[in-house]
Amino acid sequence: MMQDLRPSFDLKAFAQAGEVIVKPGRLLLQTGPREGMAVLLRHGRFAEIDEAGALCARHPGLAVADLPRHLLMPGFIDSHTHLTQSLGKSLVFGEPSEIFRRIWVPLEGSLDEHMVHLSSRLAALECLRGGFTTAVDAGTRSAGHIGRLTEAAHETGLRLVVGQICNDLGGAAQVPEPEQIIRTAEAHLARWQGDALVHPSLAISIPEAASDAMLRRISAMAAAAGAIFQTHVNEHLVAVERSLVAHGRRPLEHLAHLGALGPQVLIAHSTLVTPQELNILRDTGTAVAYNPVASVWKGNAIAPALQMAALGVRFGLGTDGTRADGFRLMDAAEALQRAGYGLASGDSSCGAGWLWLQAATAMAADAAGLGAVTGRIAEGLAADFLLVDLDRPEFTPSHDLSWELVRYGNRDQIDAVFTNGRLRLLHGWPVDWDARALLEEVRALAVPAIAGAPIQRIHPTADSQLAARAS
């Protein structure tokens, strides 16, 4: 096995030199996995893609990384996550659904600058280990420490869409005056233009955390800047009911009424959507982050992703900060559609393996506003990719690799992770920084940080419940 992996080490050196041809056993293209193909990496991009023989013949002087037992596939895109929640991940297990009010807002708001950096770096490491080369962060509620998120992205090599929260009615550690919010948003959009890894975004936590005027303005600002506008919509029953009481409209309907939807908008969840709201999503070109694991762990419902696909609603897969494993995310996405809709209707395919592969890569990149940057193995795009070991029992024999990746794939099968053509992780660990030291620091500081946060849990932890039963 190690003999097959030696070219990965060489590939790091080749990529730093500028050019290398990678010849995997299989190459995952938009048309499916292909044998006999190769890619030319040049300065962090896919420069050429062709039959291996033809590509090598055109560039006889270039070194070739021959990986006959590996799949080269696009990195996963997490279309919705929260980097500054990683220190309290399991605190929400078993809790009633609207946990952001009792746990996430108090926790994130209590983190100082250093803890924001630690949390973001830990989350970025988890993302990369799970095969996510890109993550869309919905915006930290901490007090003005967004720069530490971007610092973590640069340090780890994670491509990051980072949201600047623009709430003017609460839901964050600080709520500045409206004009200050606008100035901060403008500065955020300008600061990261052209950055190799960081892509700016604007966010409002949930529609009720902002005035109608702010919702309109922030969505329009994002559209004008070519950025995305993020918000959580139609996720919890209580939020839908609050919107009905306040406006006579459901949250998604209210955004449509304000003219705040459009191709620049990425809606997280949309689990509680009516047929009319699905039409609104389709007609406005608004994108959705389908977060299946979040539905299992804490949600009120399952987003109708198959119906979205049938209608032409844009969507990608997201974790919502639950579990950073791109393969298990695809499995959950298909499994929930089967449990929620396929079993009752006799749909044995539920979109087929290729749909979930694309929803985790190219479709998610499009939803995140990065369709022209990443998400596919295509000429001119960033070389954000994974090398997956196919020399595993799960892939032997292989009859339908697309389905096998969805149902048999796990992050421990990922041998190497690259962003911008640069090797970031090998066998799950960074090649150029000390992740073990990060884990030690997190262990030392997370417990007192959590203890000092004014969070409110409804249930004791499972460990404490078990101990109480035994006493």
UniProtKB/TrEMBL annotation:
> What UniProt keywords apply to this chain's record, in alphabetical order?
Hydrolase
Q: Which Pfam families does the entry link to?
A: Amidohydro_1
Q: Which Gene3D superfamilies match?
A: Metal-dependent hydrolases, Urease, subunit C, domain 1
Return the InterPro entries for the record. Amidohydro-rel, Metal-dep_hydrolase_composite, Metal_Hydrolase, MTA/SAH_deaminase
| Record-annotated Amidohydrolase-related domain positions | 72-423
The keyword Protein biosynthesis appears for this protein: no
Q: Which family does it belong to?
A: Belongs to the metallo-dependent hydrolases superfamily. ATZ/TRZ family.
**The protein, known as:** Amidohydrolase family protein
Species for this entry: Paracoccus simplex
